[in-house]
Amino acid sequence: MKTKVAAFIGMAFLGMTAMSCDQNKKADSDEQIIEVNIDFEKERDKLKQELKDLEAEVDQKIKELEEKKAEANADAKAEIEEMQKELRAEKSDLEKALDDVEKATENTWDDIKSGVNKTTRDIENEWQKLKDNVEKTFEKNN
User: Which of 33, 61, 72, 100 is most exposed, with the fewest beta carbons within 10 Å of its own?
Assistant: First the structure.
């Protein structure tokens, strides 16, 4: 009888230990999910801000070109208008990227982030070309 009672207590203890481990695993899993959500949100917010900053820079470049256009001759004005057109297209790409980032979910995040990074690299490359073109345009007309 004592053996049966000891065996029953042992089994009960073992069962409680197993349940406790399952609860701890679930709590750890929940904590990991929360951490992933927080990391995703932080990363998304950071990228949104970077895109907004880049969009503001594009607006500033368009404004600067508008000011230069006022001083330029007819040939330079045509080139500046073409540059502004390119910048507006880049701004449109940025707006789409920003929209994609805002709509991103954890499941789509890696793809969205890759696409946005490619877009920003392309814009930075275009800016370098634009800067070179602006300098050449004004050197040619001075």
Answer: 33
